[in-house]
Amino acid sequence: MLEVGCGTGRALAYLAQRGVVARGVDLSPVMVKQTTAKWAATGAEFICGEVLEHLRDHGETYDAVYSIFGAAWFTDPGRLFPLVHQRLYSRGVFAFSQPPAIPGAYGPQGMYKGGFAGRAMPSGRSQKPEPPPEGPAEVTSLRPGSLSESLLANARRGGIEKYVVGALITDEDGRVLLLRRRAEDFLGGLWELPSGGAKAGERLVDALCREVLEETGLTVSGVTGYVGSFDYASRSGRRTRQFTFAVNVTGGAAGAITLSEHDESAWVDPHDLPAVSDETRALLGG
């Protein structure tokens, strides 16, 4: 059995404990590391990867494929469903659950505050979009008309005045790179992901690459996925939304970080976070 977008891994662990051969695929390397550590004894297998690519490139077949508010919610069904069909045995089952679309929203769907009975929040997660036909495929994958355009359109409809991009950078041990704001700065002493405001007319992916380079000295070599977003009021009181993306970078070893706007950097366990905002803690699942 295969779960596409396995998240916390609880469902797979339940199945594995009852003798089912259970495998899951998830885009987040941090989540896969955590679920593997937590549920390895059950026999469940957790794989880090983009679901469409995994289904296309791996030939295993299954009695059932399922998604619990996972990839079937976030991925183009015209691409996902044929691939799932190819990986099912005859009379196999594809089961998935998802809430109704947010009214007025098109493209990647958001979350619902307070559960699915609450207010629609157009700030959800998405699988990695298909890269454009030319140029560096990974870094330029968030092209106009794709994920970034949908995110910005939803933000504009929600009255967001300022856009910020954040970078989730992890090392081989699953630790997250955090930077500490200088004491004299707004929210001084708080730890945060590398992040910064997008300039007027600047694409989110370009702002992301620029901010990572400016704040850490690291170069983004690939944007591997959309992690999520949160809203807050800036120092000037403007309604701000931070869009956070998982990225790969060149370098990143201890001592390789060059700080320009912060006073300290650290690679931290997402389960043992220092002083971060509630929004960042929720984003990292800490």
The CATH class of the largest domain is Alpha Beta
The helix content, as a percent range, equals: 10-25%
Could you tell me the CATH topology label of the largest domain. Answer: Nucleoside Triphosphate Pyrophosphohydrolase
Q: What order do the SSEs take from the amino end to the carboxyl end, as H and E?
A: EHEHEHEHHEEEHEEEEHEEEH
Q: What proportion of the residues form beta strands (DSSP E)?
A: 25-35%
* Integer-rounded radius of gyration: 19 Å
User: Would you count the extended β strands for me?
Assistant: 14
Question: So what's the overall shape?
Answer: globular
Helix and strand arrangement:
Layout: E1 2-4, H1 10-17, E2 23-26, H2 29-39, E3 45-48, H3 51-57, E4 62-68, H4 71-74, H5 77-86, E5 88-97, E6 111-112, E7 120-121, H6 147-157, E8 162-168, E9 176-181, E10 191-192, E11 195-197, H7 204-216, E12 219-233, E13 239-250, E14 262-268, H8 278-284
Parallel strand pairs: 1-2, 1-4, 2-3, 4-5, 8-13
Antiparallel strand pairs: 6-7, 8-11, 9-10, 9-14, 12-13
Helix pairs in contact: 3-5
Question: Main traits of this protein?
Answer:
single chain, 286 residues, Rossmann fold, Nucleoside Triphosphate Pyrophosphohydrolase, 2 domains, four-stranded mixed beta sheet, globular
If you had to describe this structure to a student in words, what would you say it looks like?
With 286 residues, this protein is α/β, with parallel strands linked by helices. The chain has 2 domains: 2-97, Rossmann fold (3-Layer(aba) Sandwich), CATH 3.40.50.150; 125-284, Nucleoside Triphosphate Pyrophosphohydrolase, CATH 3.90.79.10. The protein is built from 8 helices and 14 strands. The strands form 4 sheets. It has a 5-stranded parallel beta sheet, sandwiched between helices. It has a 4-stranded mixed beta sheet with strand order 11-8-13-12, sandwiched between helices. A 3-stranded antiparallel beta sheet has the order 10-9-14, with no helix packed on it. Strand 6 (111-112) and strand 7 (120-121) form a beta hairpin. Helix 3 packs parallel to helix 5. The longest helix is centred in the last third of the chain and has 13 residues, at 204-216.
